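agent> Task received from the user: take the single chain below, predict its 3D structure, and emit structure tokens. No templates, no multimer pairing.
agent> Plan: (1) validate residues, (2) run structure prediction, (3) serialize to tokens, (4) report one or two observations.
agent> Step 1 OK, no nonstandard residues flagged.
tool_call: predict_structure(input=
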Amino acid sequence: MNETPIRTNFTQKTLQKLPQVLTLYNDYHQSVQTIAKALKMSPMTVSNLLKQYSNGLRPSKIEYVNKVDRLGKEIEIMYYDQLMSTRQIAKKLGVEPNFVIDYLNKFSKGTRDIKEACQLRTNDEYRRKLREKQLGELNNSVKLTEEKVQKIRLEYEKMLEIGYTKTLAQYYLANKYNVKRPTISDVVLRKTWKHI
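)
tool_result: status=success, residues=196
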């Protein structure tokens, strides 16, 4: 088997990073790639450091197979029978969502079609939660506050009473509150801000 030779002549700067490399790899179980990126080193250098100054590299393939054996049935039950999403399964089992997706695609029937997944996720409760999160001032494209909306409605009613046309009143209020006329129209017709 042709393995790349282990480099033994490291620079002083590289050797100064050795304690960090060992700590990240052995204590925090970080991958070689993650360590290399964090410490601005090449993955090959990190790998060679671990081979020379540690117990070598972790048997990642063996760990992966053990994890697949241990969690495989649970993943299938949760995904196919309980109709949970890959993210929900990953959170429940304490693994990465990509691990769940890889398992389903490599060792099982595969993942759901994107349309089917969206239909499963989009139920009445999901829609209600989305609506509540986007209600009033919580909306990410909010232009007015609740206080301003109440003032606009009152002013609009007063303007109609004294003889303004609907359109003219809406243009005046739009200019006053620095929004567009359709926004004022939606507010006074209660197409938006229905909750107040």
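agent> Step 4: summary for the user.
The longest helix spans residues 60-81.
agent> Done.
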